[in-house]
Model the fold of this input.
Amino acid sequence: MDTWRSCATCGVENDLDVDVCAICADERQYLPLGGQRWTTSLERAAEGCQLQITELEPDLYGLTAFPRADIGQTALLVRTPGGNLLWDVPGYLDEAGIAAVTDLGGVAAIMASHPHMYGAQLEWARAFGAPVWVSAKDRAWVRREGPELQTWSEPFAVLPGIVASQPGGHFPGSAVALWAAGADGRGVLLSGDTIAAVPAEGWVTFLRSYPNKIPLSAAVVARVAGAVADLEFDRLYDNFRGVVRADAAAAVARSAERYIGWVRGDHDADT
Ligand SMILES: [Zn+2]
Done:
């Protein structure tokens, strides 16, 4: 496996001749105190980085790099009869990680919900001979080029039984993926942070920036919720171990309605 360079803050692989990670310099992320730092896969390995893999439900696994090698996401590996999807991508992998994922059936396709989740996507693609599907709308955020990169626009069946679409919001191409067989056939929505679970059970949220807490408009939240309103799912997994275990479609609709009321000013008298 090659040694590759990545941003030490967001973990996105980057072989461009640049001083600053464009993803972190953007208002949706942040540059750390002290400024930009880069790291390499060798440095990560020397720090003891490894991939931790947890079964979340039958045929769905969470992949998290520890110590943190990316924004802190838990990537998702969905097993299907037509091959496995790696959704959102850890910023790290090594031989042990490759062996563990191979035991789960490998990776047939890779897709990030949005550029913060690109991680080490090209490295994963090369390890498993899989394509990386990048939203055409967000293609300019890719920091490391390779022939494995393919662009997509909706509607798009990334694998049989998994359909990706782009409600947008957080990024213009912010995506979700509907896994029809998930949750015992009731349907699972992989939502990245296009739609993010929150600690209160049965609620989600939508933001332009999560670390900097920048909201979206009422119109955009209505569009995002509307884009998933016709999808059949009962459970939702976001990219930070957040889950709405049941009745998730109603949770999205209910949460959008509440959010829209607040950003529209319906409750200004209460503030
Ligand atoms: Zn970065």
Summary: The chain has one domain: 5-27+50-270. The mean pLDDT is 97. The pocket of zinc ion is lined by residues 7, 9-10, 12, 21, 23-24 (CB under 6 Å). Residues 248-264 form the longest helix (17 residues).
